[in-house]
Write a structure and sequence with these properties.
- The complex is a heterodimer of chains A (193) and B (120).
- With 193 residues, chain A is mainly alpha-helical.
- Chain A is 79% helix and 0% strand.
- Chain A contains seven helices and no strands.
- In chain A, helix 2 runs antiparallel to helix 6, helix 2 runs parallel beside helix 7 and helix 6 packs antiparallel against helix 7.
- The longest helix of chain A is centred in the middle third of the chain and has 31 residues.
- By secondary structure, chain B is mostly helical.
- Chain B has two domains: 64 residues; 54 residues, no CATH class.
- Chain B starts with a helix and ends with a helix.
- The chains are: A mainly alpha (193), B mainly alpha (120).
- At the A-B interface, helix 2, helix 4 and helix 7 of A face helix 2, helix 3 and helix 4 of B.
Chain lengths: 193, 120
């Protein structure tokens, strides 16, 4: 692809970095406000209501820990994909991105089984305020996992042909942020009982 | 970023991942001791350490333009301001010149029940 046909996010560097990367950091700053507001609300309600611990006792710590392990491992494959892209090895970067997508799918499948069990036991989004927060926070996070996995498939398809390799880093930055959000959701929803 | 990475010490990503997994194991094991402050430390203290490790070693935030860190710190401070501003309304039942309506109704119901019990 000639430089004239490349998107402006790739070629312009008005703020000391490619505009595409700047955009990703802006997205993350916005996402911090979204997730931060939700989690801050959860924390203040949780501190005000001791009775929530009885509800939180029903979440499965082992499932949460397994999914944390899955996301940490998917972050590893994402950063290794970035490393491969920096070395100009697009096919290897693509394979590692597909491994990251596999991690995302594993996370979602485990979440689906977990939620099915909880809903089957009668813990729905309307059961109590704790469960409202639980499904909203975990659901919002899961929607980011889905979005990240879809975007990663597009980036991997290009990377496989050694095209737009800089995007491997951009999707990686987003993916690591999704990992960090879960790093905080895990103790809030699964450990603090 | 490729040039910036080349000038810095290479990161052993698998070693970072291994440490993150070890920290995860500690955070899961913490509550088994049954000590509240240990649970809080192993859960939320370790979550903060893990988040910083991911941001530095995987997102390479320390290799970005410095203003990126300032933007992230700024939005985190906004979150603290949000918490400080809103939490009294959520966590306190009454304050200077105000009483939470739901708390007032619950207190009235409670005193009525106590009065009823005393009457009988």
């Amino acid at each position: 692809m000639s430089s004239a046909a490349r998107p402006i996010a790739t070629t312009r560097s008005a703020a000391g970095m490619p505009t595409g990367k700047l955009a990703v950091w802006w997205v993350i700053a916005s996402e911090i406000v979204i997730f931060g507001g939700l989690l801050a609300s959860y924390i203040m309600h949780r501190l005000a209501h001791d009775a929530w611990s009885a509800q939180a006792a029903h979440t499965n710590t082992w499932i949460g820990a397994f999914n944390t392990m899955v996301l940490l491992t998917s972050s590893l494959s994402a950063v290794l994909a970035h490393q491969a892209a920096e070395r100009g090895d697009g096919p290897k970067a693509a394979r590692l991105l597909y491994a990251t997508v596999a991690g995302a799918l594993t996370f979602l499948v485990v979440k689906a089984f977990e939620w099915s069990g909880e809903i089957g036991e009668g813990f729905t989004i309307t059961s109590s305020t704790f469960w409202s927060f639980y499904y909203t926070a975990a659901g919002l996070h899961a929607s980011h996992v889905i979005a990240g996995a879809i975007l990663m498939l597009f980036v991997a398809a290009d990377a496989r042909r050694n095209l737009e390799l800089h995007r491997v880093e951009l999707i990686g930055i987003y993916w690591h942020f999704v990992d960090i959000v879960w790093i905080f959701l895990f103790p809030l929803l699964y450990i603090a009982k | 970023m490729a040039h910036a990475h080349a000038t810095h010490h290479p990161i052993n990503y698998i070693r970072v991942w291994f440490i993150l997994v070890l920290l995860l194991i500690v955070s899961v094991a913490g509550p088994f001791l049954g000590i509240r402050w240990v649970t809080l430390l192993t859960a939320f203290g370790i979550a903060c350490i893990k988040a910083v490790m991911v941001a530095r070693n995987f997102m390479h935030i320390n290799l970005e333009q410095r203003y990126i860190s300032y933007v992230i710190i700024t939005v985190l401070v906004f979150m603290l301001l949000f918490f400080a501003g809103v939490s009294p309304d959520v966590m306190k039942k009454e304050g200077s010149g105000w009483v939470k309506p739901s708390w007032k109704a619950a207190a009235a119901a409670s005193s009525a029940a106590q009065g009823g019990a005393a009457h009988h």
